[in-house]
Amino acid sequence: MFSIDNLFESQPLVNTLIGIALFWLVKYLFYTIKRIRSLPAGPWGLPIVGYLPFIRDHTYLEFDRLSKKYGPVYCLKLGVYGVVLVCDWPHLKDAVSNDALLAKPHASLLPGGGEGRSLGEMSGSPWQEHRFLSLHILRDIGLGKSTIVTLVKEEIDQFLTTLDNDGKPVDFKKKIGHSIVNNVSILLFGHKYDLNDPAAIEISAANDEIGSSLNFAGVMAFLPWLSSFVFKFKFINLTRLIKCFQIVDSHIQNEIDKHQEKNSQEVVDYIDGYLAEMKKREERNQIDDNFSIEILKKNAGAFYGAGTAAVSSTMEWIMVYLVRYPEIQDKIRSEIADVIGFERRPDYVDRIRMPFTMAVIHEAHRIGSVAPNNLLRRASSDTKIGNYNIPKDSLVIFNFWSINRDPKLWPNPDKFDPTRYLTEDGSKAVKPPYLIPFSAGKRNCPGESLANVELFLYLVCILQKYRVKVKPGTEISTEATFGLSRRPSNLPNLIFEKISNSDLS
Ligand code: HEM
Three-class SS of residue 84? Predict the structure, then answer.
């Protein structure tokens, strides 16, 4: 019978086993050291968790601080992953155009968030197909065309009535949140909500809560073992977070059910377009797990979350600076007087003749940095950023914040100064190539054209009608909070004072 004693009696066998073990150990050490040496330098932190315990809420600030010590491209061990940080413009410019950096992490960004991935979490050909289809549908139903401008203008008419509160303060954050949800609802579901509709209020609140908790979920993405543990035993306030996901999810499911019942041939919204594509694939017998109701739900959720938080946060930053610097309101209003007047509603083309207004929007993007990092990327093969080697499967984060506050690019970067974009004669606003709030390259933000329309029209429509103020003595701070987006932490209620004819003369 075989026993461990017999094993050790057979000297040649022992020698062979030891030899194999040593060979594997040396090979393992060789590749580990090679991999570590090929990564850009950086702090490695503690065993198992790496640098995670040292990262506070405002991750982008810590990433920026470390770049001052380790250089513009460095590596950070976050949980089980080696993450490469890109923190200056020359390297970022190189990275956003690198096709080997278009993939997403293997693990889901939201561990425990159910089956299936949204297009924001997909890699390779499933991502390409979904991205192509999404842009195609959104373009067909009006994104980038005059249709969307008309729809946003109609929504703004409804929104403006909610600001009219006889000179009493209004919760701007709430009002703008509901209104922006409506613009995305039109694209996704083909209809909007009455601003007092309990469904709209519930979804908007759930979306908000998901947004502010996502940082935490992001941390769990670096420690898959922690996330399974946390989800299994339902630790901390996850029950509430899961509830919020369920609210958004069941609402989207409800919309999908209605669309399936309607069974319309006409594509008027994203759900119609996606269901039509699924049907086409079925008819061609193209059995494809990548196109399913589950993924449609995930995509709609991604558009909902990404399409509302970033736009409303940018509008909140604009309000902060309009109230802090009332002379900026006056200058925009004087452009409104010259180009549009106070009777006609603004059009998106008016922006071409309103350089100062556009400069205010550019500066709000820069100083607010509502997306201070991109969503995590993964290197799909060994590649390079500048002269740095990036091994396959490294995760990569672009720290837009560092570029937006780089004093070499922006003199006095903490100052809100729209004039930095104006040509000498003030006739044009020029956005420099290093201001990329929507990221750049093949995986840039697909909602950029909708966001641009929204920001211009909301800003101009508000100032055409109202002077924005706070109660005397109210502090308006530039402090930020950071979850899904970076937004003002304490935007006070705002007063929208109607502009009278005497003001205009
Ligand atoms: C001010 C407004 C917005 C800002 C600053 C913004 C910014 C961004 C950024 C920085 C990314 C990451 C790109 C990367 O990984 O390099 C992104 C991705 C994305 N955004 Fe936006 N966004 C805005 C509005 C919108 C809107 C209105 C929508 C939809 C209607 C939207 C939908 C998405 C989606 C689905 C992705 C993931 C794309 C992919 O992975 O292929 N965003 N956005």
Answer: strand
Average pLDDT over residues 136-150: 82
Axis-axis angle for helices 172-189, 198-222 (nearest 10): 90
Model confidence over 267-321: pLDDT tens digits? 889 999 999 999 988 888 777 668 899 999 999 988 988 889 999 999 999 999 9
* pLDDT for position 49: 77
Question: Are the beta carbons of 477 and 489 closer than 8 angstroms?
Answer: yes
Q: The domain 40-504: what is its CATH number?
A: 1.10.630.10
Task: Indicate the top mutation candidate among 445, 448, 449, 459 to test ligand 1's pocket, ranked by most ligand atoms within 8 A of CB.
Answer: 445
Q: Which helix (H) or strand (E) holds 182?
A: helix 172-189
Give the residue with greater pLDDT, 209 vs 388: 388
Q: Indicate the residue type of 317.
A: W
Residue 429 has pLDDT above 50, yes or no: yes
pLDDT tens readout for residues 437-449: 999 999 999 999 9
Ligand 1 atom closest to 313 (CA): 1
Question: What is each CA distance from 444 to 123, 220, 238, in whole angstroms?
Answer: 14, 25, 30
Quick one: pLDDT at residue 217?
Answer: 47
Which atom of ligand 1 is nearest the CA belonging to 398?
16
- 332 C-alpha to ligand 1 centroid (Å): 27
Ligand 1 pocket check for 370: Cβ under 6 Å: yes
Query: Would you state the structure tokens that stand for residue 103, as one six-digit string?
Result: 């993939």
CB 76 within 8 A of CB 83: yes
Detail the residues annotated as belonging to a binding site for heme: 445
> Per-residue pLDDT for 99 more than 50?
yes
DSSP 360-392: HHHHHHHHH-SSSB---EE-SSSEEETTEEE-T
* Cα(374) to centroid(ligand 1), Å: 9
For ligand 1, say whether the CB of 373 is within 6 Å of any of its atoms.
Answer: no
pTM of the predicted protein model: 0.89
Average pLDDT over residues 171-198: 89
**3-state helix vs strand vs coil in the chain, percent to 5:** 55, 10, 35
Q: What pLDDT does residue 227 have? A: 57
CB burial of 17-44 (b: ≥16 within 10 Å; e: otherwise) equals: eeeeeeeeeeeeeeeeeeeeeebbebee
CA-377 nearest atom, ligand 1? 15
Q: Are 270 and 300 in contact (CB under 8 A)?
A: yes
For residue 398, the SS3 value is strand
Q: 104-124 burial string, b = 16+ CB within 10 Å, else e?
A: bbebbbbbbbeebbbbbbbbe
pLDDT recorded at residue 207:
79
Domain boundaries, the chain: 40-504
